Amino acid sequence: MNEKFLEVLKYLFLSLLQGITEVLPISSSGHLQIASEVLKIKDNTVTLSVFLHLASLLAVVVYLRKDLIELIKGFFGFLFKDKIKFKNQFMLAIYLVVTTLILVLFTVLMKLFGFDSSPLWLVGLCLIINSALLFVFGKFTGTKKLDELSLKDAVVVGLFQCAGSFAGISRSGSCLCGCNVSKIEKQASAKYAFLLFVPTMVGATVLELGNFKDLFINNENIYLYLMSFIVTCVTTYWAFAFLKKIINKGKISYFGIYCLIIGIITFVYALVTQ
């Protein structure tokens, strides 16, 4: 088969994988590692990773544009206009920052202590744990609205979200489970988890921006990067809409079944081949 065609297929696969797994609670990092070690499909340049993160970030911002505009207006409205009228939006913004900072601190500590990579068997085990988290969320009983959140809730969700730093455990899935523990109702949990994608994606992109300059320097594959950007952007947007429907229907445990199956297969494969 033509080498160029295989290269196009590789980039297409990676962009689809990024767009779908970044949002759905099935762990993007876990699937990327499985693709790398089992399917032998991987990206050898950090530049593509940056490009795909930018595509996902754009899709997230477009999908959440109304909520983000409302949040920004409320934040500055509280500071410069009416503290009573805009209090709820301002506090929501603060809680999102607190939750994100906990994740950032945990990620930095992981890198400092050398825990920024996992063996394949651990990825499989983490996928099994992720399935358990999703089954827990599927038994949802929360009643708390977003305007009833407290600093304690933000911290609890932040601590749960730290689990998503391990390949195989989804940040969105662990975040939703943290919301469940905090007794936050289903719709509010989904909105909080969705809004957390923005600072999370911004952070992931900023950490890799130093490699972005290499994209336009003697890069013969620029058309592949542009194709990957568009595919990732579209699939990320679709994944958000799909996840919202799944949560509203109370069917998130379907992802738990999927993660359980993939986790067991990955775990067994790692034990047999390593």
Structure description:
This protein has helices at residues 3-21, 28-37, 46-63, 65-80, 87-112, 120-138, 151-161, 171-181, 186-208, 222-248, 253-273. It has 274 residues and is mostly helical. The protein has one domain (52-273). α1 packs antiparallel against α2, α1 packs parallel to α10 (222-248) and α5 (87-112) packs parallel to α7 (151-161). The model has no long low-confidence stretch (mean pLDDT 85).
Summarize the structure.
This protein is mainly α and 274 residues long.
Counted beta strands: 0
What value does the Rg take, in angstroms? 19 Å
Which structural class is indicated by helix and strand composition? Answer: mainly alpha
How many domains? The number is: 1
Furnish the topology, listing elements before pairings.
Elements: H1 3-21, H2 28-37, H3 46-63, H4 65-80, H5 87-112, H6 120-138, H7 151-161, H8 171-181, H9 186-208, H10 222-248, H11 253-273
Helix pairs in contact: 1-2, 1-10, 2-6, 3-9, 3-10, 4-5, 5-7, 5-9, 6-8, 6-11, 7-8, 8-9, 9-10
Tags for this entry?
mainly alpha, globular
